[in-house]
Amino acid sequence: MELLSGADMLIRSLQDEGIEYIYGYPGGAALHIYDALFRQDKVKHILVRHEQAAVHMADGYARATGKPGTVLVTSGPGATNTITGIATAFMDSIPMVVLCGQVASTLIGEDAFQETDMIGVSRPVVKHNLSVRHPEEIPEVIRKAYYIASTGRPGPVVVDIPKDMTTPNERYEYVFPKKIKLRSYNPAIRGHAGQIKKAVDMLLAAKRPIIYAGGGVILGKASGQLTELVRMLGYPITNTLMGIGCYPASDKQHLGWLGMHGTYESNMAMHHSDLILCVGARFDDRVTNATEKFCPGARIVHIDIDPASISKTIDADVPIVGPVDAVLKEMITLVKESKEKPDADAIASWWKQIDEWRAFHGMRYETSPDVIKPQEVIEALCRLTNGEAFVTSDVGQHQMFAAQYYKFDKPNRWINSGGLGTMGFGLPAAMGVKLTHPDDEVLCITGEGSIQMNIQELSTCNQYNLPVKIINLNNQALGMVKQWQDMNYESRHSQSYMESLPDFIKLAEAYGHVGVRIDRKEDLETKLKEVLAMKDRLVFVDIYVDRFEHVYPMQVARGSMKDMWLSKTERV
Amino acid sequence: MRRIISVLLENEPGALSRVVGLFSQRNYNIETLTVAPTEDETLSRLTVTTTGSDKVIEQITKQLNKLIEVVKLVDLTEGSHIERELMLVKLKAAGSQRAEIKRTVDIFRGQIVDVTSSVYTVQLAGDSDKLDGFIQAVGTSGVLEVVRTGVSGIARGEKVLSL
What we know:
A: Rossmann fold, 3 domains, six-stranded parallel beta sheet, 21 helices, 22 strands, 35% helix, B: alpha+beta, Alpha-Beta Plaits, five-stranded antiparallel beta sheet, magnesium ion binding (chain A), flavoprotein (chain A), THDP-binding (chain A), transferase (chain A)
């Protein structure tokens, strides 16, 4: 029988769970745990400079590896600082466990120093949260937390640990449970066979079909199955911002991504389709535009692990609840076995129509001899990294340009806060990726607004030698806000102008990194090459881009999917 | 439409706050809510009455089911069911009013459970309409205080909500 203190049990449970990294920040209520961490070397701790960054780091790690991230913070402000990060992970269904210190159980409710009701505060933005009520429970609580976080529709789980649960000199028997079974939580392990059959029949009978795939394909590790099915059928595919990489962007069946800033051909094809096969996406408002005008002629098959995502905004004709990989696998088998084949004539004329839309070149921008266009920067980066980098982004115009002009052929490489839209996400997420992918190129594409929301992490990068490349598309304004003000508020730029920007080059140098400024178009390619050649250095690349550029296409507010602005003057 | 949703919930601290939080967070309506432990001490039974379109009700049941601590739930209004609510009312009862109130209580099959020289306290059980009907019958001017438990419900026949 092995006797351990609560703190040792916690760390031991993390080891037994196979956790490699914890991102965190110590403080009073977590000190017993930090001491236990000190006395072992299996689980590595990364000390951030702000707790929010710890969560985004764990998030970036989870998105790139598919494994749950782990965060450790203290009570009170340590815990509340994680909330934005937790909400970010929650909106994008990212598996994560956030361990929070808490004041001793005897003090809870007394407004003790650094006391916050973290269970209450986090409740609306977690998949679940758990409180430790006895030290002996710790191994089971930890096992349960990871099980819930990483199964079904994944999400963040918070564990609240009062300080007296980890007291060093009180020891209990350590038993790590082999299996967890919860009577009230049983995510589906396969889809309904009858529904799948019905869906396949509809797919094969469709005249103008389209596959609409989302982040669920990446989370469900189903890119392989999706690609196989789509190629077998020969149908067009589009994906959401979160689904980028689930199907190779360079493939001719891929129409680009859809929605507010999606491609012309994707939005047109969705609107005119007669059958939409939705795989692991959720008909988000940034995709559908006005729901009452959404794809009037389309019947909808919706595959999702979460029943609540089905018919939430858009009614599904054939709902299929199940893990996307298993459901797609069954569909592949049925398509192979079926005597019915896709209607070759109908599909050929559908492609003819789509190719006409493609020829319209919705995704175009005007270049200029004098100024660097943000789109050009992304295209150059994509070229210079062969489209194989891990790219994280912050939120705003740069995010949309990166998603539009960097072509991802593989899943897990495009990492952004799609659901919550969290500025300050990009740098810490890139750090989480770089830590586990030291030999891969990791780019953080950001703007001068977003980067300043977690800039302190340059210090963490120095401590742990994380040579990410920060690509700052500097337009000296909060670009997306300014774009909306141009379009909807007669260019009244209320608070969207960034005065007194720091000298980012000196700032990077102050943190021990390299800073490079690019402000002449003719330098762009050569300087980017030089930057990428500095393999073992973090380089902050401050690129002065066109201050007046807008992101297009852009769906017209409250319109249907096909109503778009294609430039400042051209509306279709 | 008005619905009665009956939920078996893990009897754990914080579980109720998740249910209540879900309703406010997603902008759903709660009209009444009752909760108490069951014969199985690990489970609570919660009954919530709510209103909404079929689409909203579908989302409510799906979102409730997603809560880790919700073990099972049923929308009682989908089948025939029995609903009951208990009400205690303090009524002004002086002089000639006393006999009239007594008669009305009898008609509604209620009981007078406490008496002073000027007040009757009446206990009444039934569905929510019946309780509303009683208040209407005695007239709001005579009502001093009302307390209602909220709706509890159970399916008719052999259907049971259990593990």
